[in-house]
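User: quick one
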Amino acid sequence: MADLHFLANPARFRRFSQRVLPGLGFATVLMLGVGLYMAFFVAPADYQQGQTVRIMFVHVPSAWLSMGGYALLAVLGASLLVWRHPLAALMARAAAPVGASFAAVCLLTGSLWGRPMWGTYWVWDARLTSMLLLFFLYLGHIALSRAYDDSGRGDRAAAILALVGVINLPIIKFSVDWWNTLHQPASVTRLDAPAIHNSILVPLLWMAVSLLFLFVWLVLLRTETEIDRRRLEVADQTQ
Amino acid sequence: MASPLLEVTDLACRRGSRPVFDRLSFGLGGGELLALTGRNGSGKTTLLRALAGLVRPDAGTIRWQGEDVAGDPDTWRGRLAWLGHLDGLKGDLTVAENLETAERLRGGDAARLDSALVAFDLGPLAARPVRTLSAGQRRRTALARVVLAAAPLWLLDEPLNALDAPAQAAFRSALQKHLEGGGLAIAATHAALGVVGRTLELAA
Amino acid sequence: MASPLLEVTDLACRRGSRPVFDRLSFGLGGGELLALTGRNGSGKTTLLRALAGLVRPDAGTIRWQGEDVAGDPDTWRGRLAWLGHLDGLKGDLTVAENLETAERLRGGDAARLDSALVAFDLGPLAARPVRTLSAGQRRRTALARVVLAAAPLWLLDEPLNALDAPAQAAFRSALQKHLEGGGLAIAATHAALGVVGRTLELAA
Amino acid sequence: MIGFLSLLRRDLRLVWRRPGDVGVVLAFFVVAVVLFPLGIGPETNVLTRIAAGVLWCAALFAALLSLERLFAADYEDGTLDLLLLAPWPLELAALAKCGAHWIVTGLPLSLLAPLLGVAFGLEPESLFILFVTLLVGTPALSLTGGLAAALTLGARKSGALLALLALPLCVPTLIFGAGAVEALAMGEGIVTHVAILAALALVALATMPWAIAAALRQAGE
Amino acid sequence: MIGFLSLLRRDLRLVWRRPGDVGVVLAFFVVAVVLFPLGIGPETNVLTRIAAGVLWCAALFAALLSLERLFAADYEDGTLDLLLLAPWPLELAALAKCGAHWIVTGLPLSLLAPLLGVAFGLEPESLFILFVTLLVGTPALSLTGGLAAALTLGARKSGALLALLALPLCVPTLIFGAGAVEALAMGEGIVTHVAILAALALVALATMPWAIAAALRQAGE
Ligand code: HEM
Ligand SMILES: Nc1ncnc2c1ncn2[C@@H]1O[C@H](COP(=O)(O)OP(=O)(O)OP(=O)(O)O)[C@@H](O)[C@H]1O
Ligand SMILES: Nc1ncnc2c1ncn2[C@@H]1O[C@H](COP(=O)(O)OP(=O)(O)OP(=O)(O)O)[C@@H](O)[C@H]1O
Ligand SMILES: [Mg+2]
Ligand SMILES: [Mg+2]
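Assistant: Done. Structure below.
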């Protein structure tokens, strides 16, 4: 959190982000380009799943990032409620839709993948269901932070939700696992993670890192926009 | 002069993202009344809410007998009696029940209920559910709640709203009595309160 | 004397099962103001609501130019401009939008919006959502709505509530202008309106 | 007519100011639908069997939840008095408010339900019929629910009371709406179902505005 | 403690003044449960299969509908300010309000659900387990829903938003509550289920009052 402390002041953050953003954007594009190339052309097609396995290179990192994103929201929520960092609210506002988008991408790619693999877009599998619930938690956060006249109130309400939600996430995950193992659906043929070859693992990790770059870049960019929006709001109201 | 009981230093507040007031300082001793005046939107309501701790100020301190009230909010709240824009009454409870519950919630025992009712001529209405009262009758009930609280500091937002002339007189004498007993009062108002006191005019 | 424009005969109303007033009669001609006074709970609000047709009277008639208004309520409502205890504003719409929509709902075209805004010094607030306004700023918006309606009869419930001194003066001159143009006004109030007119005191 | 249109526009504009509100109702719909598999268990064949019922019930809940504030907001801030005092028929005002509610709730719900139906394993034709029945049936829900909303104005716990009043009134719509999807699954004709749904909507359209107006006048007293 | 008890008593008395309000929530529960056979069709084996899930989902909805006004009424009439200004911990006040809500909603729902279960063809033991799980699980619903209610104070469309916030957080309770009845039907043990439900309720009891108090404080600003 040390760097957040340093950046707690929006003006200082702006100076920092303006220096970092262009380079970060460039690096993101570069990494993503290389990653996608590896995913589509270098990595071998799976002997069982054919070309569809390539969906994994987006699907799995999205899942990781959306889970990490919610943890970020909780950290930001705590620093807003406890230390009153003005930037934490803006950053949470910026990060929530990005995290939600990654969750949506995970769900979408997953169900697109499910069609060839399971013959259906959706099954009530534990992992799928808990990802869906995470997506809802994101939606709740976004809706709550925008539901108020006073943006500060929305920020604080959403921060409380993020903290409670992050405590609940393991409970939700656990309960959904339990729920599903009680009566396992017979029709589902899940991909039992086979010992992953390096030929797949390397592109996967590469894509994970480049999507992480994308995540950070988007969050910083959106934070800048939020700062500007807040400034306009202030200017608008003090005129 | 001894330092005042209540001391406000450099208080600053914003609503939404609009600064409402900035570097507001004043002190108030026992038996003193402060009337808040100023144009509509000058921040009287905001100041009262900040004093009560309902709005967190951006900057500044509020001291009671020299101690920052933020340090022990429970005790500070115990020192306050609050009358807001809204009356804070439950329509389904009777006048007497409303007063009694409100005082119990403050941790008191509502022993002086009858005299508070009499002070605002609420005797005949005591058993009526508040939802059947007129605007001024409700306001009188809310004022009786303030009197009942027996708190050293009254915070009142437009206490005269909707009151008829006899009720205004009743309020005045209750306020006078509170001040004579060494109490403090801060009241936002557009009309003259009719009680001797200092005035703080907020700039718009 | 020509018979008055508005003629109320033997009006009786009850709230819940309690009779509020009985056999109330008065007449009001063009350019006249009637101030309703009386103790809290004497029935001022009830009378205004009965005149507007929001409360059904137990007995009695209300005539406009000699015709019973119950016969053609749509036309009657078209003649009224209403200001209640509640401001009747939408917090999410701006001041200007609130005024415009309210006038459209009355079937008018809100052409004189700007002058109504200026009359109550609402120009700088016109583009702000009403939810960010203070109590008095909202009341001023509601008053501007009344002025905008250009209706012959104004029904006002405690119009001075929450207004600061300049806003009270603005209201007074608007009312004066309305009366000079031959309009009628009935206003429930506890404070002096500051405009020449008759007074009807309701008994408690 | 000017009044009708400007009321409709005002209500739509109020929603437009906060596009999130519609999103919230839809999100609620989705969440409610998702809860059922969690409560009932994940077997696809059971879920497909009850899908139409669950989707229709959830649509009903979503509509009811959002109906609660239909008139209550106007009542609490005093704009209902202004509506009552407008010099044109209150029946039109009632219609405008319910119309605006349908546009922002019924219509998107109808579009969203088929997407969720996929997760329950419904066939494409069933999805289409689901869409059609919702499209035809939701206006009746908006109008009947509007009546309940008007009747409960000023009552405490009005949300639950509203639901209590509205649910029985909505039962016929629900039965024929969900029934159509099942009839299709059984290979029966569905024209009758849709026709009855349309008839219900028309009856609601022809009667509810008057009932709502009467209830609103009552609330003004 | 005086404050805690008198707040609890006040809320119970407010309900007592209008006994219809509890009746309404329960009636909503009954109607919602009855709708399912109507929407789904009358086959008993399907109905028995889904009975526990449906009853639990309906209880959840009923609790949420009634939660909406939990703090909103106090907020609108200004009594929330008085609560915030009371010189004792706001956490206790939150607990008292949720406790009152449970007494007038969760408890009667637990008693009513087994009666409805009979109509779905549940066995006596299942009915008893249904009662026990609801009794143990509903306090968690009241507390979690109470947080959602406090968070949405003053927000527009708070009803639907409340449901959106509360539903994901209530999923664990739902799963173990409905799951217990099914586990029994499968001949499995249910002690674990009930133990987990109790643990969930205790976790909610230990954390939610703080979160609710924080939410109420910022609602007062
Ligand atoms: C909408 C549908 C889907 C959702 C929501 C979903 C969700 C997830 C999540 C949350 C993870 C991360 C798990 C973790 O690392 O802890 C994951 C990983 C993974 N998913 Fe999916 N998934 C879906 C469909 C599929 C399908 C159809 C397949 C292929 C048959 C698949 C294959 C995988 C693989 C191979 C991993 C990585 C293996 C691992 O980390 O254990 N997923 N998915
Ligand atoms: N919720 C809010 N969001 C944004 N701005 C607000 C909010 N509430 C009040 N304001 C603004 O803050 C300023 C101070 O408002 P406040 O209510 O304290 O004024 P006041 O002095 O009490 O006025 P009045 O005499 O009209 O009651 C006003 O300019 C008002 O427009
Ligand atoms: N909804 C109601 N049910 C029963 N009685 C009511 C109701 N509303 C008002 N009353 C009673 O009717 C009488 C007249 O009330 P009304 O509101 O007209 O008084 P008012 O003259 O406007 O008083 P104020 O000056 O306090 O506004 C009062 O005695 C009041 O208690
Ligand atoms: Mg004020
Ligand atoms: Mg009155």
